[in-house]
Amino acid sequence: MSSDDLYQELILDHARHPRNHGRLCEGAACAQGVNPLCGDELRVCVRVEEDVLSCVRFEGQGCAISTASASLMTEAVQGRRVEEVLALSARMRSLLTGGPAERAGLGKLEALLGVARFPARVKCAALAWHALEAALRGERDLVIGEEG
């Protein structure tokens, strides 16, 4: 089995059985992300305690890529410091768009990088990351459109 096959299986597993999906964190900052081009809508909520993301959850509906990305993202950022999360988010968004960034140390998130080969799906994979950043900035709503 190739690494592409393993990554595809991981994405399908997270799309079918998303982690940290549903019941939102109490006392959390939340941001709603919408991609009107494909209909994805995600709400990402984070609770920060002593500069660490102590709770990260998402709800909403979207395609398999946006759901898997949100699921993988919540697993990767929970328990990390805000500064570290923002750096990881910027790195992931750069990698998803085919930009320069370090791939080392991504773990399961590396499964999402194949999306860069499909420009129409990049916004699907990046939506949760944009919503996470918006929640950390205290913003409530964002729309990912042609410019996003």
What do you see in this structure?
This protein has 148 residues and is α+β, with helices and mostly antiparallel strands. The chain has one domain (3-143): Sufe protein. Chain: A. 42% of the residues lie in helices and 20% in strands. The chain has 4 helices and 4 strands, in the order αβββαααβ. It is globular and about 40 Å long. The model has no long low-confidence stretch (mean pLDDT 88).
Number of E-state strands:
4
Tell me what the CATH architecture is: Alpha-Beta Complex
- What value does the average pLDDT take? 88
Question: Helical proportion?
Answer: 40-55%
Q: Which regions have little confidence, pLDDT < 50, spanning 5+ residues?
A: none
Order of helices and strands: HEEEHHHE
Termini Cα gap: 35 Å
What fraction of residues sit in β-strands?
15-25%
Which strands sit side by side, in order, in the main sheet? 3-2-1-4
State the helix count.
4
- CATH topology tier name: Sufe protein. Chain: A
Overall, the morphology is globular
CATH class: Alpha Beta
Count of discrete domains: 1
| Cα gyration radius (Å) | 14 Å
